Amino acid sequence: xxxxxxxxxxxxxxxxxxxxxxxxxxxxxxxxxxxxxxxxxxxxxxxxxxxxxxxxxxxxxxxxxxxxxxxxxxxxxxxxxxxxxxxxxxxxxxxxxxxxxxxxxxxxxxxxxxx
Length: 115
Hints:
two-stranded antiparallel sheet; elongated; mainly alpha; 2 strands; 115 residues
Protein backbone atom coordinates (compact mmCIF):
# COMPACT_ATOMS: atom_id res chain seq x y z
CA UNK A 1 0.00 0.00 0.00
CA UNK A 2 1.52 3.32 -1.10
CA UNK A 3 0.71 6.79 0.25
CA UNK A 4 -1.17 9.09 -2.12
CA UNK A 5 -0.48 12.83 -2.40
CA UNK A 6 -0.59 14.41 1.04
CA UNK A 7 -2.26 11.40 2.69
CA UNK A 8 -0.40 10.36 5.82
CA UNK A 9 0.75 6.74 5.85
CA UNK A 10 0.25 5.41 9.37
CA UNK A 11 2.37 2.29 9.11
CA UNK A 12 1.93 -1.46 9.11
CA UNK A 13 0.30 -1.65 12.57
CA UNK A 14 -2.57 0.51 11.39
CA UNK A 15 -3.11 -1.63 8.29
CA UNK A 16 -2.81 -4.85 10.33
CA UNK A 17 -5.59 -3.62 12.64
CA UNK A 18 -7.79 -2.85 9.65
CA UNK A 19 -7.07 -6.30 8.22
CA UNK A 20 -8.02 -8.04 11.52
CA UNK A 21 -11.21 -6.03 11.84
CA UNK A 22 -12.14 -6.69 8.20
CA UNK A 23 -11.55 -10.44 8.52
CA UNK A 24 -13.63 -10.65 11.71
CA UNK A 25 -16.52 -8.93 9.99
CA UNK A 26 -16.15 -10.58 6.56
CA UNK A 27 -14.41 -13.95 7.10
CA UNK A 28 -15.44 -15.12 3.63
CA UNK A 29 -13.32 -12.30 2.09
CA UNK A 30 -10.08 -13.02 3.97
CA UNK A 31 -8.08 -13.29 0.73
CA UNK A 32 -9.18 -9.93 -0.65
CA UNK A 33 -6.32 -7.41 -0.68
CA UNK A 34 -6.78 -3.78 0.27
CA UNK A 35 -5.98 -1.18 -2.37
CA UNK A 36 -6.40 1.58 0.22
CA UNK A 37 -7.06 1.80 3.93
CA UNK A 38 -8.52 4.77 5.78
CA UNK A 39 -10.07 5.61 9.09
CA UNK A 40 -11.74 8.45 10.90
CA UNK A 41 -13.14 9.49 14.24
CA UNK A 42 -16.63 8.47 15.27
CA UNK A 43 -18.63 11.03 17.20
CA UNK A 44 -20.42 9.32 20.07
CA UNK A 45 -22.39 11.24 22.67
CA UNK A 46 -22.30 10.08 26.27
CA UNK A 47 -26.10 9.85 26.38
CA UNK A 48 -26.35 8.12 22.96
CA UNK A 49 -28.54 10.92 21.58
CA UNK A 50 -27.94 13.18 18.60
CA UNK A 51 -28.70 16.87 18.35
CA UNK A 52 -30.50 18.75 15.57
CA UNK A 53 -31.43 22.40 15.69
CA UNK A 54 -30.37 25.78 16.95
CA UNK A 55 -27.48 25.91 19.43
CA UNK A 56 -27.34 29.70 19.85
CA UNK A 57 -28.41 32.76 17.87
CA UNK A 58 -27.32 32.14 14.25
CA UNK A 59 -25.60 28.87 15.25
CA UNK A 60 -27.14 25.59 14.14
CA UNK A 61 -25.95 22.01 14.31
CA UNK A 62 -26.70 18.43 13.38
CA UNK A 63 -24.36 16.66 15.79
CA UNK A 64 -23.47 13.28 17.28
CA UNK A 65 -24.71 10.83 14.69
CA UNK A 66 -23.26 8.05 16.90
CA UNK A 67 -21.65 6.04 14.12
CA UNK A 68 -23.45 6.46 10.80
CA UNK A 69 -22.11 9.98 10.33
CA UNK A 70 -21.47 9.91 6.59
CA UNK A 71 -25.03 8.97 5.74
CA UNK A 72 -26.88 10.62 8.59
CA UNK A 73 -24.62 13.67 8.60
CA UNK A 74 -25.27 14.28 4.92
CA UNK A 75 -29.03 13.89 5.30
CA UNK A 76 -29.32 15.98 8.49
CA UNK A 77 -27.02 18.64 7.05
CA UNK A 78 -29.35 19.10 4.09
CA UNK A 79 -32.40 19.10 6.36
CA UNK A 80 -30.73 21.66 8.63
CA UNK A 81 -30.04 23.92 5.62
CA UNK A 82 -33.68 23.54 4.56
CA UNK A 83 -34.87 24.39 8.08
CA UNK A 84 -32.69 27.51 8.23
CA UNK A 85 -34.14 28.54 4.85
CA UNK A 86 -37.62 28.35 6.39
CA UNK A 87 -38.76 24.96 5.11
CA UNK A 88 -40.59 22.55 7.41
CA UNK A 89 -41.39 18.92 6.65
CA UNK A 90 -41.93 15.64 8.47
CA UNK A 91 -38.21 14.68 8.81
CA UNK A 92 -37.31 18.14 10.16
CA UNK A 93 -40.17 18.06 12.65
CA UNK A 94 -39.17 14.54 13.73
CA UNK A 95 -35.53 15.57 14.35
CA UNK A 96 -36.57 18.68 16.29
CA UNK A 97 -38.98 16.62 18.42
CA UNK A 98 -36.32 13.94 19.02
CA UNK A 99 -33.80 16.55 20.16
CA UNK A 100 -36.38 18.17 22.45
CA UNK A 101 -37.24 14.80 24.05
CA UNK A 102 -33.58 13.87 24.42
CA UNK A 103 -32.82 17.23 26.02
CA UNK A 104 -35.64 16.73 28.52
CA UNK A 105 -34.51 13.15 29.28
CA UNK A 106 -30.89 14.12 29.81
CA UNK A 107 -31.14 17.42 31.63
CA UNK A 108 -27.74 18.26 32.99
CA UNK A 109 -25.93 16.04 30.45
CA UNK A 110 -25.88 18.74 27.77
CA UNK A 111 -25.10 22.43 27.86
CA UNK A 112 -28.16 24.67 28.06
CA UNK A 113 -30.02 24.91 24.78
CA UNK A 114 -31.93 28.02 23.70
CA UNK A 115 -35.69 27.76 24.00
